[in-house]
Structure formats: C-alpha cells, structure tokens
Amino acid sequence: MQEIQLGTSEQQAKAGSRTTRLSEAQLSDALSAMREDGIVCVKGAVATDLIAVLNEKMQADLDNRTPSRKVNAWNSLRPPPFHPYLYEEIVYNDAATAICRGLLGARATLTTYGANTSWPGQSEPQNVHRDVPDGIITEVCPAVVLNYPLTQFTVENGATLVYPESHRTSVAEAGGTRKYSEAMLAKQARARQPEQTVGIGPGDLIVRDLRLWHGGMPNVSDERRIMLALVVIDPDYTDADETGFKGFEAEQGSDDFWRNPRLETSVEFVPAGDRSYYQHGHHSTPPTALYRDWQMRKGSSKT
Ligand SMILES: O=C(O)CCC(=O)C(=O)O
What we know:
With 303 residues, this protein is an alpha+beta fold. Helices cover 24% and strands 17% of the residues. It has helices at 9-15, 24-36, 48-64, 88-91, 94-104, 182-191, 289-298; strands at 2-5, 39-43, 109-110, 114-118, 143-149, 161-162, 195-196, 205-209, 214-215, 225-233, 248-251, 264-265, 267-270. The radius of gyration is 18 Å and the shape is globular.
C-alpha cells in the first residue's frame, strides 16, 4: 500500500503549523495509487488529539451498548453525529476531499458516517469481500471509503487484510455473496500479494476503492480496535457496481456543519431525543433524495 507522508511531527513543529494539504505531486501520486492499487494511505492527515477525543467517546459508547454482531462480527456503533464531536478536519479533511473530488468528480457525496470495530476474542477472520458486492468492472470508480484508525493497527488487534489491485477483478463467480472460493483468493494473491494495514494509526487516513477486496483479521489483543468508515460516492454513477450507501442520519442543530463546499453530503436530520438513533451497528438507510432515487430506479420503494 502506497503511503504519502503529510509532514512529520518534527517538521510540523518547526513550521509552527500542521500541513494538511497534499502538494500537487502528492495528489497526483495518490490518484495514481487509487487507480492502480485501489488504496492509498495518507500519514499524518489529522491532528491526533481530535482522534483521541473520538476514540474516548466511541469506546465509552461501546461500553454502554453492544451492537449486534450476528450478521457482521466487525459491527460498531456509529460515530456521534452531533456537536462537539464533529470535526471538519475529519469529515472534510483536505487530503481526503482532494482525492475524492479527483476520483469521483466535483459532486462527490458523503453518504455514510460509520465505523468498524475489531473485537477482542474474534478468532476467525472475516470473509474477504468488497463493499459493493457484485457487478461489472469498469475503469470508473463508483465510490470510496475513508478509514480513519482511532488506535494503532497491529497484527494482534486484527489490522485489515487488503488485496491491492483487486478493485479491477470481477467477483461475479461469488454471485453477490461474501463467499470467495479459495481458488479466487489464491489467483488474486498470485497477481498481487495481499497485505495487512499494520503500522497505520491515529492521525492517518486510508482511502479505499469500494470494490477492493478486504477483510478484518482475528483480534488476539485485549482491546477494541475502531476505525471510522465514511463512504463517499459519485452520485451520478449508475452502473451495476452502484453502492446502496445513500445517506445517513445526523442531529438537528448540526445542519451547518453538513454544508461544506469541499464535499456534498446526503443527510437526514433527526431530533436529538434519546440519541439512540445513531447507536446502531448496521448502516442507516434514511429516505434521502439519493435513496429515493435509487429505489425508484430499482423499481421498488422503501417500506
Ligand atoms: O475492521 C476491519 O478490519 C474490516 C471490517 C470490514 O471490512 C467490514 O465490516 O465490512
């Protein structure tokens, strides 16, 4: 996985400020990596103190409420979509938004604000999968996920296994399931060796093409390892690989935050109330305009 360094902490301290923008050359490298490998890591993209605040809050949420892990053992609760936990530096991160717009176009739209957790005691690896299950392979990227690790990723806590270049491999053989045969996995590994996202940590950003094969690994540590997962789509993409991630809930009162010239957002605002609306493991599917349009095109409507 190609890593792009935004500036070491020593360099930043010397300059008296943090560098948050990719240079033109770095952006070009990041976009090439996305096209060729389907994944890129930007080191030092976010101030670590913000990540620490979110980790503390999200770990506390998980202490209070455990999401069902029946369907997906890597389920997490969503990050709190209300102030004071909303950070422009994360949601509208300079490096992330530049890469998204370069790859997906000026209408790149944030459609999930979620997370995954690798849980201690998880002894089996996750089925290797894509986040868009099936469909054709084209040169055009339909969507990406922005992963922000909240803690250091290690072999012990189950750093994600990724298959660089697999975003260009058809999985039609798997028939829309997460069951890739040993033969499929071996063939892909021969084309390009899979690797674990070990060595990334708080402050880093991974951008991954939603078609890239990946899976969580066993967690033999005693810690919950959380990563934020923000899906950004090209809303005009309607080929077979179109994603069903079409929007998420955020709290009334945070409306201004979700309007930003760098990235469109697909948000349904909900009253604050008991705030249980965000403490779910599964992806939300509120009836946003993008969701309704998708349902209409599929010829069915949300019940
Ligand atoms: O957290 C991880 O390592 C991967 C989780 C994942 O890919 C998923 O739940 O779909």
